[in-house]
Structures are given as C-alpha cells and as structure tokens.
Amino acid sequence: MSKVAAEQIVERLKAIVVSGKVLTDADSLQAYGKDWTKKYEPDPVAVVLPKTTEEVQAIVLAANEMGFALVPSGGRTGLSAGAVAASGEVVVAFDAMNRISDFNPADRTLVCQAGVITEQLQNFAEEQGLFYPVDFASAGSSQIGGNLSTNAGGIKVIRWGMSRDWVAGLKVVTGKGDILELNKGLAKNNTGYDLRHLFIGAEGTLGFITEATMKLTRQPKNLTVLVLGLSHFNHVMDVLQAFSRRIDLTAFEFFSDKALRHVLANGDVTAPFEGEAPFYALLEFESLTEETLEEAMGVFEECMENGWVVDGVISQSETQAKNLWRLREDISETISKFTPYKNDISVVPSKVPAFLTEIDEIVASRYPDFEIIWFGHIGDGNLHLNILKPEGLAKEEFFAKCEEVNTQVFETVQRHQGSVSAEHGVGLLKKDYLQYTRAPEEIAYLKAIKVAFDPNNVMNPGKVLDI
User: Which stretches of 260-390 are assigned E, i.e. beta strand?
Assistant: First the structure.
C-alpha cells in the first residue's frame, strides 16, 4: 500500500470513529496486529477501535469502496493466526465495544458487545446467581466476539458444549456492509436457514460479530476435582467410561508427565501426590450429595483394582480444587517460553488412544530431539500436541521442521475421520490442510458462501479459505 493510500484510509477512518480511536504508532500496530501465534510478523496500516455497530458498518462500507482489507481483533489469544494482520490490512479491534446490557432473568439471557471479556461475562452471570459455562485458560483476556468467531470450546465441553451452544442471537455486519439481527434470542425459530451459525466459527471471513445474545444456566454446586495418575495412556478411556457410567462429569482432562513437570518447575503449585505416573487425568463433577461422593470413591477404587490408576487425590475445598485445576490450566503458559509448535486435533473419544499412539510415534520418530508435550480435553476427543523449540534453534528453522511432518499427522487425522482444528480455528496456520477434514465439495460450498457475504473479499482475506 502506498503512503498516500495509507494516509487516505487513516483520514477516512478518523472521520468514521469520531468517538473511538485510530492508531498508527508502531507499538499499537505491533500489539494489535498479532495473536498468540509467532510465525507471522504483523504489518497493519492502522488500528481502528469502533464503539458501535453503526461505526463498524461504516468501516466495512469504506473498505469496499476504497479497496482495503479488514482483520478483526479481539483478545488476541488465537492460536491459528486468524487475527494476524501481516499484509497491510486495517485492524478492527473491538476492545471499546465491551458493554453488557439487557439482562433478562426470566429468559436467562443477556446482550453483550463483541469486546466483552469472557471472564467479565462469567462474573456478571455469577452476580446474577447464574453461570456461563464456556471456560478456558485465556478467559481473563479473550473476548466473546473472538470466542464465537472460532467457536471456542475449552474445559467444560463434555457437560456444557461449545460456544455456539450458548448463542441465542447475533448482530453482525456482513462483508457487504449490511447489518443483520439473527434469531433475536428465540428458543424456537424454524424459519429456514439459521445464519447465526454461519458466523460462529467463520473467523470474521463473512462479516464481523458486533453483539451477541448469550444464554446462561444455573450455577453448579460443590464442584469437586479428582486428579488421577494413569499407569498407561490406553487406560484413559477405561477411566472415562467407568466414571461416566455412574457420574455426570463436568470436565475430563488429561496431560502427560512432561507437561506436569513444566508446571511444577514454575513453582506456583505442588505435585498432586507423592508418586509419579506417565499420564494424568483430571475429572470434575458436582458433589451434590454424600451418595455422589461415595459413588466417585467407589469408581476410583475400581480403577485402582484394575490397575488403570496408580494414585489419586480428591479436592477437599474450593481452594484445593482451584489448585488442582492449575496443574492442567497452567500448561500453556509455562511452555510458552519454548515457542511451541501447536496442533489442535480431534477424533471421536473412542478413537483417542489408538489415534494418540499413532501420532506420538510419527512425531517421536521424526523429531527424536524435540520435547513433545501432550494435553487435552479427552472427554470430547480433543488433543493438543505441542512440540517445544530447542534452545539455539532459530524460530524459522524450527517451524519449517515441524511443518515437514504435518502431512503425516493430518493424513492420520483424515484416516480416523477427525479434525485438523478442534477449537483453535483455521486462520493462516491450518488453511493449507483444510482438505484433510473437509471434502472438495464442502470446500466449494464454503467458498460460495464466502463470496455471497463478502463479494469484494475485504473481510479477513486469506484466512480459512483462498478466494
């Protein structure tokens, strides 16, 4: 983009967001032009922070008229480069659109703008005696608009589902610049295509979510956490099935001993018990009665007798439950300094043991000198594969080596009829591998939908699909 063109765009944006901000300083361009991925260098021309849906609409109309591209920016916690502006785009940051309104206790719904922080929504629900169940490690910084644009999942999916399951309505600005109000909070609305679900998971490629009507539920009571040491990964499904038959779990997570070592090395939490195990499972459930707790202990003893579990600990207080959760939730943060190469893959839960064994063998044989960290949401079949960069190896060389094995990994995903992106989205990182999960006919329909909503390709171009 030429300097003159850039100046014209900035002046147009300043005329649009009279109550907001337009940022062009180097620090802001760097901060807003990226997410948590480290492969691409940000290079936006400007950052604009609108405050209303109408301002977002005016920005989109200007982009169509003047021919510049837009990249949405929420909490910038994405892991697939879906919010990276690396090619002279304008970043539309939703930080200033952070109001919660229209709480309806009878319907258990509220309206929130796209920039509302996940934790902000959770806290608001709690203040009303209710619960917003979608939760993950980045809840303190991720934004609702970004969560919905990637259909974020997290640690409670086994009980409460993905982000899309809690959306009663959306207000969006399409790539053409139209404002659509989708579903309007209705529980029943059988009037044809539900366009709301096209925008959820679309990563801003069809248009921008500006408001969402979110559903809430009752608060869970006396959440109790079990951390179990597993004798072998193959027993993870045995343990899951044993507990699921008799208890309604709210979470079932797993992590490897290597993952745990990094968390413990940070010094903020202690080991769950004295002994060690190659893998660990974290279970959570509502302990509503003494009978439920006795049932859980009975299943634990059964798992011990069968040799599936070598040791375990159960929370005795809310504080202990939070500390046990940190053994799982602190993994991403403690390994981030090693510039991990991440894969977020999934299969149906019953295929997890065989699937993980195959993937682990591929990665270990190709990268015997790289440390491999496994963790994930086993209850819904989602595995996070993290390859840590050795000290002294250049970032570019490390990523190139990791990408060499992607074809083998994703061919295995395809053979097991899984997904190359379970919850992190496609963005730039997974775009070239979409065919391992989506059939050619599906991709053709996806492209047709993109063109229908964004004919000039101004909305997050180059992400998910190439048009």
Answer: 279-286, 309-314, 341-346, 371-377, 382-388
Burial of 440 (0-12, 13-18, 19+ CB in 10 A): exposed
List, in order, residues 6 or more apart from 171 with CB less than 8 Å away: 53, 179, 180, 181, 182, 209, 210, 211, 212
Half-sphere exposure of 29 (CA within 13 A, CB side): 14
At 412, phi and psi to the nearest 5? -70, -40
Encode pLDDT of 232-291 as tens digits: 988 999 999 999 999 999 999 999 999 999 999 998 999 999 999 999 999 999 998 999
Domain 3-96: state its class.
alpha beta
Instruction: Please give the sequence-ordered ranges of beta strands (E in DSSP) within 140-183, or none if there are none.
Output: 167-174, 179-182
Both tokens of residue 362?
Answer: 């591929």
Burial of 361 by CB count in 10 Å (0-12 exposed, 13-18 middle, 19+ buried)? Answer: exposed
Separation in Å, CA 190 to CA 194, 198, 263, 289: 8, 16, 48, 40
Question: CA-to-CA distance for 134 and 162, rounded, in angstroms?
Answer: 7
Domain boundaries, given as residue ranges, for the chain = 3-96, 100-218, 223-332, 339-451
Distance (Å, whole) CA 104 – CA 124: 12
3-state secondary structure of 182: strand
Whose structure tokens read 């018990």?
273
pLDDT cut 70: percent of the chain above it = 99
3-state SS, residue 277: coil
Which amino acid is present at 102?
D
Could you tell me the pTM of the whole model? 0.93
CATH topology classification for 223-332: Alpha-Beta Plaits (3.30.70)
With H, G, I as helix, E, B as strand and everything else as coil, classify residue 427.
coil
100-218: what fold?
A: 3.30.465
- Strand-pairing partners, residue 214, are 110, 167
Query: 226 near 313, Cβ under 8 Å?
Result: yes
Over its C-alpha atoms, the chain yields an Rg (Å, rounded) of: 23
Domain 339-451 is in which class?
Answer: alpha beta
